[in-house]
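Hi V.,

You were right to ask for the full record rather than a summary. Here it is.
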Amino acid sequence: MKPKILVVDDESTIRDSLRESLAAAGYEVACAENGEEALALCHGQDFSLVISDLKLPGISGLDILQALRNQGSQVPVIMMTAYGDVDTAVSAMRSGAYDFIPKPFKLGTIKKQVRAALRATTALVQDRAGQEVAPHPAPRAGTPDMDGRYMRMIKSCPGLARVAEMMEKIGNSRSGNDTSILIQGESGSGKEIIARAIHEVSSGSQDRFMEINCAAVPETLLESELLGHEKGAFTDAKSRKEGLFELAGQGTIFLDEIGEMGILLQSRLLRVLENRRFRRVGGKDDLEVKARIVAATNQRLAEAIEAGTFRNDLYYRLQVLEIHVPPLRERPQDLEVLINSFLREFNQQLGLECAPVDKTLLESLQKYPWPGNVRELKNLLKRIMILEEPRQLEAEHFPAHVLDGRNPRTSSRQQALGRATGMVPLAEVERLHILYTLEMTENNKSKAARILGISRQTLREKLRQYEAAEADEGALKSDVAEN
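Predicted structure:
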C-alpha cells in the first residue's frame, strides 16, 4: 500500500508542485488549502505524513499539529514557513513537529524529509508491534519504569546528576500523583525530557503522557483542551469532548510554557490542583483528576509574579517539587552522551550507520555556548544526518560559528548596538535595542516586553514591521542583482 501524505497550504502553486512531485515519487497525495479542511480530511482518513504550512488563514499549522496530538495521533508533521526565523522553528519543534523547512525550499529536500519521516514512523510501528527487540523489557502494568529511555539518558549525563537523584526520589515516593512538579530552565534545555522521565518513574506510567504548549494554543481554546466541553457549551461545540485531564487517566499532564497561561485560566487551574476535581466547560458534574501535573517554563516566575502576570498562589502550588535544568553551556561534559544518543536515534530512523562522535570534533563542539541548548544540538544533528547521510561526523558538516565557539547573532547585534551613535536614525537604535533584548531573553516576548516597558501587542507589531522591511530589502537586492 502506498504511503498517504496530506499537503496543507493556502498557495495553490505549492500544493500542486508538491502533489506532482510526491505522486511521481510513488506516494498517494491529498491536499487541503486551510486548517479546517485538513482536520476534516484527517477525521476521515489515515495519513502516513502531514506536510503543512505554518501560516494559514484561520486554523494555523501549529493548531493542526496540536489538534492531532490531542486526538492521540502520532502522525509525523513537517512544517513549512516563509518566516524562517529561529523563534518559529523552535515553536514548531517544541509542539511536536517532526521537522521544520523554511520556504523557499528544494523539492529534493522535501523528498528526503518525507523518506526520513516515513522510515521513522515504520520503525515506531514495528516497535509497538513487538517485531523489534527492545533493549529493556517493558515494565509491568502499574510498575514505574525506573530505567526507561529518558531516565537512562538523564542518568548518563554527568551534568544532570542532581536531576537524576531527584528522579529516583520521585520514583520511590509514595506521595502519588497529587504531588505537582515545576521544571524551570532555559528554552531548549531539555525540560520535556525531564517531564517524560518523571512519567516513566511514576506509578501511572502505564497510562498516557499528555502534553500541551500553553503558549501555542489560544487562551479561548486552552480551557477546552484541558477541561473538555459539553455539547452546546459554545458555538462550535457540536459534540462532547474529553479534555487532557480525562484523557491522561492516571498518567501525566505536561503543561509546557505555563508562564504564558492567562491569569483567569490560572485561577481555574489552581482550583483543579487544590481540589483534584474539575468540570467540563458547560458541564454540571464534577470529575476527578487522577493524573500527575507537571509544569515547565523558561520564564523567571518570580518576576512574572511581580509584574502581575502570574499568580503567586499557583506558583507555590505548582512547585511542591521544583527541578532546575541547567543550560547546556554549563554542562559541556554531557555533549558526548547527547550527541551519541541522538546519533543512535537518527541511525534507526533514517537507516544510517553513523559512528559515535570523534574526540577531536567533540572538543571543538564543547567550546560552543549552544544558545539554543539541547534542542539546537538535536535539530542541527538531524539536518546533518538527513542532508549529508554521514558515516562519521566531520568538522565540515558543522557551521563555522559552531566550530569557532561563538554565537554570531548575539555578537553581531551587540556590535551593531555599540555602533548606534547619533549618526544613526533613532528608529534604527530602537530596532537594535528591541532585537538585542529579545536575544538576551531567548526570544521570550513576554519578558522582553516587560523589560522594554511596552505591551506584547506593541512588540509583535514592531517585529512584524521589521520582518516586512527585511522582506522589502531582500526583494530590492534581488531586483538590483537581476538588472
